[in-house]
Amino acid sequence: MTGAGMLGLTAVAMLAEKGAHVTAVDPVPARREMALRFGAAEVSAGEKAFADVDVALELSGVPAAVRAALDSLTVGGTLVLAGSVSPGPAVALDPERVVRGLLTVTGVHNYRAADLRCAVEFLAACHSRYPFPELVEGGYPLERLDEAFDAAHTGAAPRQAVLPRA
């Protein structure tokens, strides 16, 4: 799994709860440490490629991470792209490897009502086992929304809380 932000950490916890062996790849040391706390079996900064995985989740949207995730698949493997939600550089795809490797590449964007229900049920059942509160900091009133956006890029937590009323 590449990208240990909010979505990645939640994915790590959900997969760990199901008994999956999760390797979380992220260049940021604090995110790798958090991934371990959310149940990752191992972490990597990406300096060494992980290989021979059945399923790779790409949650960062970084082209190099997409490439690494695709390259990590074993025969019959599946790559799920969820982080590539903004325009960016293209990633080369070798169709022969996809065909001979029996690979599946799929994208996920938004969610269905059943997905939201699954996520809420997971959080209700497991919120106390993982440090979810540490993923949100701040507490900005709407009048300071610009500050909240600035803090989102510089703060320790992946999300900033915005309060509807002061």
Order of helices and strands: HEHEEHEHEHEHE
Rounded Rg: 17 Å
CATH architecture field of the largest domain? 3-Layer(aba) Sandwich
Strand content: 15-25%
Range of helix content: 25-40%
- The class by helix and strand makeup works out as alpha/beta
Q: Would you tell me the overall average pLDDT?
A: 92
Distance between the termini: 38 Å
Q: What overall geometry do the principal axes of the alpha carbons give?
A: globular
Question: Can you tell me the number of structural domains?
Answer: 2
**The CATH topology of the largest domain is what?**
Rossmann fold
Tell me the name of the CATH homologous superfamily of the largest domain: NAD(P)-binding Rossmann-like Domain
Description:
The protein has about 170 residues and is an alpha/beta fold. It folds into two domains: about 5-105, Rossmann fold (3-Layer(aba) Sandwich); about 115-165, no CATH class. Helix content is about 35%, strand content about 20%. It has six helices and seven strands. It has helices at about 5-15, 30-35, 65-70, 95-100, 115-125, 145-155, and strands at about 25, 40-45, 55-60, 75-80, 105, 135-140, 160-165. The strands form three sheets. Strands 3-4-5 form a three-stranded parallel beta sheet, covered by helices on one side. Strands 1-2 form a two-stranded parallel ribbon. Strands 6-7 form a two-stranded parallel sheet. The longest helix has 14 residues, at about 115-125. The termini are far apart. The model has no long low-confidence stretch (mean pLDDT about 90).
